[in-house]
Amino acid sequence: MDIPLWLALLTVGYLGVKLIRPPWWLIAVLLLGGFLIADSVLAPVLNGFVK
Fold this sequence. Notes:
Keywords: Membrane, Transmembrane, Transmembrane helix. The chain is mainly alpha-helical. It has helices at residues 5-20, 24-38, 43-50. It starts with a helix and ends with a helix.
């Protein structure tokens, strides 16, 4: 069974917010930080760690 990545991330994110209940600012910082790092000069370095 193949599940699309966006659906898996959406499900895990929803369950994480519902069960753990982190503060709203922490969610915003993680989303914004991930977006900014993905488009920075650090992206190739992080890509090496992910693979």
